[in-house]
Structures are given as structure tokens and as C-alpha cells.
Amino acid sequence: MKAFGWILLALGVLLAAGLLGPVIGLALAVLALPIALIAGAAVLPVVLVLGALVLMLGILGSLVGGLLAVLGFALKYALPILLVAFGLWLIVQSRRPSRA
Predict the structure, then answer these.
(1) pTM for the complete prediction?
(2) Is the dihedral of CA 39, 45, 49, 52 positive or negative?
């Protein structure tokens, strides 16, 4: 137990001095690689399905946005022009004598 105590003391001093941190970080990174590989392989189908869903929703959103843009254009420009044209047509129609 005394030797284990000396080992722990040496590890603590090296860790406190900043000499052991990079070694432990590298060891943990190497140990995490298989876990990351398994987790990535498990999550890949979910990511692909979500990506396809986001792509479809993006296309649908673009179509809705384009439709609303055309509607906005029609309300801003075409509707007043049509109202003026229809009003002028009604004014002109009422001045013509009827043949009946």
C-alpha cells in the first residue's frame, strides 16, 4: 500500500504541475474513439432521416413563400390596377345607349 501511495503522490504532483494532463487527455481521446465510432454509426440513420425531412420542409417552405410573394405582388399592384380598370369599364359602359 505504501508503494501505491507513492505512485498516487507522484501522479498528483505531475498532474498539478501540468505535465500529466496532456498524456491523460490523449489516452482518454484514444479510448473514446471506439465509443464515438459506435455512437456515430448508431446515429447516422437518424441524421439521414432528419436531413431528408428538413430538405422536404425547406422545399415546401420555399413553395409557400413563393406563393405568398405572388399573392403579395397581386395585392399590391394587380388589385388596384384591376379595380381602376373595372371602374373605368363600368363608367364607360353606363354612358353607351342601350339598343333594347
Answers:
(1) 0.46
(2) positive
> What is the pLDDT, as a whole number, of residue 19?
85
Tell me: the pLDDT tens digits for 25-72?
Answer: 899 999 999 999 999 999 999 999 999 999 999 999 999 999 999 999
Taking alpha carbons only, the member of 34, 11, 36, 32 closest to residue 21 is: 11
Place of cell 399573392: 71
Distance CA 92, CA 90 (A): 5
Q: Residue ranges of the domains in the chain?
A: 2-95
- CA 5 – CA 57 distance, rounded (Å): 61
